[in-house]
Specification:
This protein has helices spanning about 1-25, 35-60, 70-95, 100-130. The protein has about 130 residues and is mainly α. The longest helix is centred in the C-terminal third of the chain and has 29 residues, at about 100-130. The protein is elongated. About 30% of the residues are buried. The structure holds protoporphyrin IX containing FE (2 copies).
Length: about 130
């Protein structure tokens, strides 16, 4: 139970940071500080989600059945965790490969938006599977 609580807490905190990264990128781009804040919260949110996934796997492994990836929450969860890793990497790659910046930027924007669409659904399904709502 404790590991499930850690899982939920890490995921919710990570999602709030990823949502803030999206909001900063979409609304604060005229401010001088936007990229620094966007980058910092994006690079903090991603690892929190990854740690949340480690906690989830450990939590499921510690149950008597120990069956991984058996509900829609866990399938969407895997996609969400993947996007939370890929999105900040794409963000950084824009500066590494200036000749490919156009394509990387389009994909980064798409992943950033998709990620923030998936997170509330994953949280909702997680709360359902935990029978909290
Ligand atoms: C964006 C947020 C979330 C993501 C990406 C996520 C991701 C995952 C993943 C990948 C697993 C699979 C672990 C495994 O099978 O080894 C999992 C399991 C689980 N998560 Fe989440 N989770 C999130 C939020 C939550 C929340 C808020 C709760 C509420 C308490 C929650 C409760 C659970 C439960 C109970 C399981 C075990 C479900 C089962 O075995 O069918 N999750 N989660
Ligand atoms: C997971 C965290 C992140 C999310 C959810 C995210 C999301 C987004 C979104 C949605 C946009 C486009 C905003 C718009 O079109 O109005 C954007 C732009 C941008 N992001 Fe991120 N991002 C993240 C992490 C990063 C990181 C770590 C960097 C590295 C510096 C970065 C660099 C950029 C840059 C340079 C732009 C501007 C691109 C342009 O001019 O369109 N992002 N981000």
């Amino acid at each position: 139970m404790f590991l499930f609580l850690i899982h939920a807490a890490l995921m919710v905190s990570g999602c709030l940071l990823l949502f803030s990264a999206l909001i900063v990128a979409m609304t604060q781009r005229k401010k001088r500080w936007w990229l620094k804040i966007h980058k910092t919260i994006g690079l903090t949110g991603g690892p929190l989600i990854l740690l949340g996934a480690v906690a989830a796997v450990a939590a499921v492994a510690s149950t008597p059945e120990g069956h991984h990836l058996r509900t829609p929450h866990t399938w969407l969860g895997v996609m969400t965790v993947s996007a939370a890793i890929i999105t900040p990497i794409l963000g950084l790659l824009q500066f590494r490969f200036p000749q490919k910046v156009g394509t990387i930027r389009v994909v980064h924007r798409l992943f950033g938006r998709l990620l923030n669409l998936m997170t509330p659904i994953a949280i909702f399904l997680g709360l359902r599977v935990a029978e909290i709502i």
